[in-house]
Amino acid sequence: MEKIKMTTPLVEMDGDEMTRIIWKWIKDILILPYVDLNTEYYDLGLEHRNETNDRVTVDSAEATKKYGVAVKCATITPNAARMTEYDLKEMWKSPNGTIRAILDGTVFRTPIIVKGITPYIPTWTKPITIARHAYGDVYKNTELRVDEGAKAELVVTKKDGSEERALIHDFNGTDGIIQGLHNTDKSISSFARACFNFAVDTKQDLWFATKDTISKKYDHRFKDIFAEIYENEYKAKFEELGIEYFYTLIDDAVARVIRSNGGYIWACKNYDGDVMSDMVATAYGSLAMMTSVLVSPSGVYEYEAAHGTVQRHYYKYLKGEKTSTNSVATIFAWSGALRKRGELDKNDALMKYADNLEKATIQTIEDGIMTGDLEALSSIPNKTRVDTEEFLKAINERLAALM
Known about the structure:
The chain has helices at residues 17-31, 46-51, 55-67, 80-85, 95-103, 185-202, 218-241, 250-259, 270-284, 311-318, 328-345, 348-366, 372-377, 388-402, and strands at 4-5, 10-14, 35-36, 39-43, 69-72, 106-111, 128-132, 142-146, 151-157, 163-170, 176-180, 205-210, 245-249, 264-268, 290-295, 301-305, 369-370, 384-385. The protein has 403 residues and is of the alpha/beta class. The protein has a ten-stranded mixed beta sheet, with helices on both faces. Strands 1-3 form a two-stranded parallel ribbon. The chain has a two-stranded antiparallel ribbon with strand order 8-11. Helix 1 runs parallel beside helix 14. It is globular and about 75 Å long. The relative contact order is 0.16.
């Protein structure tokens, strides 16, 4: 068949360790035989980030703003051990954090559902997408230990130099601790618009929850901003599509989520999203079966797998051993990015290819051919455990038939 042409480049961000190896295999086995791939390539492997003083990460994010769509391989966020292992100049920041800040984006994570892998919550027959606000709150907090007898106050110094004060606590008879949190209207508004845009894009209901009955100013500000933006900018579009924006308290939301069938976006504040995304991923079966897309309020998309670089498998690979690494989330990062590129460029052939790639991947698993992690979870009879390359080749057999 003639390869599918791409008119606009896709920003390609390469990564680290086992996912870097799988990245190339996916391209060679599943993409390049069908697509005349047009990418602007950035090497976000830790060695190259170190060589460029992490400039390559910034450049890749700026390119994503220019072209509108990116696909990213998993990358290492270095710790002290990695400093020594890679002889780093400094402990470079998380690439995801850098890119997220430049794009002003919100992360949406969605499980990939296949027959034979039953969620731990059996009523969850459709995916739940977690949208996490990734700015402020406890992640940018200020904390102090407080001695007995001290008085803690919240102080705001205004532009004119005047002060506004509120008592936090008088520490009479005991030591204690205090914590200061902040957020900004700009960041909350960007989060809200990204969530509403994603709901419109995917035609799904959007849920949002805080604890505004207790946090009557901080959490209530989130509630108010979401409500204002929905009423002024999105209500008519939601009604036209037949989808709903639903607000409730976070504890009520958790109860409703557990009883639900899924099939909606659950927008969460930073800490709630951190916790609930891992809970949802585990309850659906595997983090390796979880897609992740960063969406900016201006409509820029960056797709990646939700998991890390699979370090343990990489060390086995370096010894020449076969690995049975689950590549599904990385495949879906590519299919998601290619579909979005096709949608923006009105390239029907590219969108159909992306759909077929996902169908072939799911069909392979449902036919009983899968990697080791899925074999342990799947209830399909007569399962066959295969290594990573064998899995990709089995997908390609089905993809060729669909194409």
